[in-house]
Amino acid sequence: MPAGRGQSRLGAWFDHHVYSLVASVGRMLGKPWATLLTVGVMAVALALPLGLWAALHNVQRFTGDVQQARQLSVFLKPEVAGARATELAAQLRARGDVVAVEHRTPEQGLAELRERSGLADVLAGVDGNPLPHLLLVTPKGDEALLADTLQALPEADVVQHDASWRQRLDGWLRFGGRFALVLAALLGLGALLVVGNTVRLDIQARREEIGVLQLLGATDGFIRRPFLYLGACYGIAAGAIALAMLTAADIALRAPLAELATSYGSRFALQGFTVVQAAGIVVGAGVLGWLGAGLVTGHYLRQTRPTDT
């Protein structure tokens, strides 16, 4: 008998959760314009920091691989033969402060210059190949120290090492990431307040019903549950719309950005949210709505419960 009573209580608890969810969806659909306004404001508040984060992520990808960005370009002297350049590349690969070395011959450099610079007609009139052998060295440790070492090689003519642009870019990216977090916190608070105010209006409209439930001995959890699901539904809908907005922006920008990257010899393409990230955004938005509804409902119940006893 106690086991049957326990199962009955569990079934009633589950049924009320299902009823609260269905009733919340019904209340949203029953006032479409108000729902659209609330969800739209939340969606914009969520889309702004998410869009900024996605933009920063793609900028980091556009700057290239970190190792590639740290490469040192060692232009050998014109009189250095191909065999010596190959031997020097092998010696550098054996160093502990070097990750990799790529040897580009003058023929490879000239072919790449013709392909990417658009100067094929001009280069066709040049006798011979004026380009030297090039070693692309990827450092493992301190790149500035390695650049000084490479410059001291008797075969080296010029060592290109300009990491200042990358350091400045990294600083801007760190600032952008911090700014995205601050913006997400502020707009997330705004979204939470929007849900809280919407739920507060719904509580005011059902004040008499809540008073009757309190007189009948309903627990705070029982009364709060439908409003929690209402807030969660607002949040989930807002998260889904925010993802749809960002996906539409991604589709609109993908083709022209790919053409621009191709003109610079890059295969860069915009990368959107993964399935796991998209699911996390929707769930996080639902949790945000749940919290907003919980705060408002809890505050209302703390105010009304003592006066009704």
Automatic annotation (TrEMBL):
Its main location: membrane. It is found in: Cell inner membrane. Keywords: Cell cycle, Cell division, Cell inner membrane, Cell membrane, Membrane, Transmembrane, Transmembrane helix. Residues 71-145 form the FtsX extracellular domain. It is a multi-pass membrane protein. The chain crosses the membrane at residues 33-56, 179-199, 227-248, 268-296. One of its GO terms (biological process) is cell division. InterPro entries: ABC3_permease_C (IPR003838), FtsX (IPR004513), FtsX_ECD (IPR040690), FtsX_proteobact-type (IPR047590). Residues 182-292 form the ABC3 transporter permease C-terminal domain. Pfam families: FtsX, FtsX_ECD. One of its GO terms (cellular component) is cell division site. Part of the ABC transporter FtsEX involved in cellular division. Belongs to the ABC-4 integral membrane protein family. FtsX subfamily. Forms a membrane-associated complex with FtsE. This is Cell division protein FtsX. It comes from Lysobacter daejeonensis GH1-9.
